[in-house]
Amino acid sequence: MHIHDYMTEVGKKARHASRAMAKAATATRNHALQLIAAAIRRDAALLIAANQQDLDSAADTGLSAAMLDRLSLSAKTIAAMAEGLEQIAALPDPIGEISNMKSRPSGIQVGQMRVPLGVIGIIYEARPNVTVDAAGLCIKSGNATILRGGSEAIHCNRALAKLVIEGLTGAGLPADAVQVVDTTDRAAVGALITMPQYVDVIVPRGGKGLIERLMRDATVPMIKHLDGICHVYIDSSADPVKAGNIAFNAKCHRYGTCNTMETLLVARDVAPQMLALLAPRYAEQQVALRADAAAFKLLAGYPQLSLATEEDWHTEYLAPILAIKLVDNLDEAIDHINTYSSHHTDAIVTENYSHSLRFLREVDSASVMVNASTRLADGFEYGLGAEIGISNDKLHARGPVGLEGLTSLKYVVFGHGEVRN
Fold this sequence. Notes:
Elements: H1 3-23, H2 26-42, H3 44-60, H4 65-71, H5 75-90, E1 98-103, E2 109-116, E3 119-124, H6 129-140, E4 144-148, H7 154-170, E5 178-180, H8 187-192, E6 201-205, H9 208-217, E7 230-234, H10 240-252, E8 261-267, H11 271-284, E9 288-291, H12 293-298, E10 305-307, H13 310-313, E11 321-327, H14 330-340, E12 345-349, H15 353-362, E13 367-370, E14 390-391, E15 399-400, E16 407-414
Parallel strand pairs: 3-4, 3-6, 4-5, 7-8, 7-12, 8-11, 9-10, 9-11, 12-13
Antiparallel strand pairs: 1-2, 2-16, 14-15
Helix pairs in contact: 2-5, 2-7, 3-7, 5-6, 10-11
């Protein structure tokens, strides 16, 4: 079948399934999630084997270390996928919730009801866990979804798709409510993002090249973020131990994620102490440091040290590379972040309450943190059960996108026979 015809058929099936999902009972949707979680645990060995096929193929094609990290599944990550589905099932169902009811002078009562978006297209690279997170959130929120994973994860995504369909049909829901695009042809992406008659919103989770292409070509609205240029600012009043642990974890916990710190800002008056604490820990992990002139002097002798350029402040490395800049005060830190941040996640480490409040108010990012690692900017960690992506847009959804981000509001009116005079 021609790719356009194939994607049109996928779109039609999704639109039809979305109507059944919107009216499905909460208990039915939760049951599907529980069945999928059980199937994932049951078939963990099969998923590991499928993932190994993908890893072997990816290694042969020279996939980057960051992408290989995203592609890899382990017994722990598979267990986390199942747990995430169970957490989603345990969350309150937002669908049908009525809020903001007000009585009007005419006698009518006006409120808002939370409803599904409809059909959500999700495009992602490498990460097979996204297949499960996305399917789970869309099922719970009463949406149908079309999942287009990266070609590098095709074997694992096919294996996961079978388990999702097993759970859906076992609960009496349409199998087409979650469709994994079963082709590696890139033309499928072009078709998916230009089908507004079948797809209500696109959520891209991938590299900068993918997002830029979709921003240029898509005719379907998107929930997205382009870069993850995240900052940690160590304030002059920071607790050194707390600051050291946060700055180390934010960079070194994982390198290939969008919530990894890429620039470390340090108040000038505590920089000698903080850099002396952090440099050995970064060196042990072979993190290359790109420092401004003042930090460069303090880090003299560090094994992988170079002077930062203007480009470094704009760069999402997704690698063991960290930009470091010394700043005079909180004002300079906030100004730097609002200038160079991608408005994803930024953190301050401080024991000064007024500084923490100013940072929360004035930093214009989707997640703003006090005394916590940027790596915690995640739907699972936020109690959303999972996330379908992270948005640094300001309209509709911002930050980790969980259940509410996959819904909309419509006005509902209760009358008693009123007419307009």
